[in-house]
């Protein structure tokens, strides 16, 4: 699964190289390389709050489940294709999970979203795209637990909106996982359980 993350990053590098090619003197895509002065191009860091929970038809098997407030942080690179459209890959460390009456589940992921960015105005944009992730660790309360019962590879889609003032970015995003959380029950038997991650993110980014 970690190889999939590496493959995704290599693909992003290929896309970046394509976006930096010269497409001719009459094109409107003049500021589309990584270090362009275009407002929808550049690199930066970001981080913020996660409001994580689970969804799916079988989530009631976990009892009364509430959201878990945690964090995410990482880096992003935005490649302008035109003045209105760009591609934004990110590498994030994101803590998800949920809370029950008797315990808190914390699930730590390394994630790679690849987002299409549509500029509504110079300072407001909409983001939409897929993402993949690998579960790096899991804890119940503060005790680390075995990852074997879990699907450590996750995939899904992200959508959000972002405002930009100078080099600062403030945004919110919803990430909806399509992959089931667990593959085995507590007894080690295989299960087909419709329980998936879902998280609302609120973040602040700084571009360079």
TrEMBL record:
Write the record's keywords in alphabetical order, separated by commas. Signal
Q: Where is the signal peptide?
A: 1-19
- Top-level taxon of origin: Bacteria
Q: Does the keyword Nucleotide-binding apply?
A: no
Residue ranges of domain Outer membrane protein beta-barrel in the record: 40-181
Could you tell me which InterPro entries the record lists for this protein?
A: Beta-barrel_OMP_2 (IPR025665), OMP/PagP_B-barrel (IPR011250)
Please report the name of this protein according to its UniProt entry.
PorT family protein
């Amino acid at each position: 699964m970690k190889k999939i993350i590496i493959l995704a990053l290599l693909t992003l590098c290929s896309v970046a190289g394509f976006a930096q090619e010269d497409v001719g003197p009459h094109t409107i895509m003049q500021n589309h390389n990584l270090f362009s002065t275009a407002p929808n191009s550049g690199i930066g860091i970001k981080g913020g709050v996660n409001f994580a929970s689970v969804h799916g038809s079988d989530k009631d098997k976990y009892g009364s489940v509430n959201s878990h407030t945690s964090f995410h942080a990482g880096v992003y690179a935005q490649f302008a294709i035109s003045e209105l459209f760009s591609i934004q890959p990110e590498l994030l460390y994101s803590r998800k999970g949920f809370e029950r009456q008797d315990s808190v589940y914390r699930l730590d992921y390394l994630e790679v979203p690849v987002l299409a960015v549509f500029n509504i105005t110079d300072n407001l944009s909409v983001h939409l795209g897929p993402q993949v992730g690998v579960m790096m660790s899991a804890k119940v309360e503060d005790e680390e637990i075995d990852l074997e019962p879990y699907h450590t590879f996750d995939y899904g889609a992200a959508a959000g909106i972002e405002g930009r003032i100078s080099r600062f970015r403030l945004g919110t995003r919803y990430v909806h996982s399509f992959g089931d959380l667990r593959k085995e029950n507590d007894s080690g038997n295989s299960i087909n359980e419709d329980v998936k991650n879902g998280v609302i993110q609120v973040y602040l980014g700084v571009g360079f």
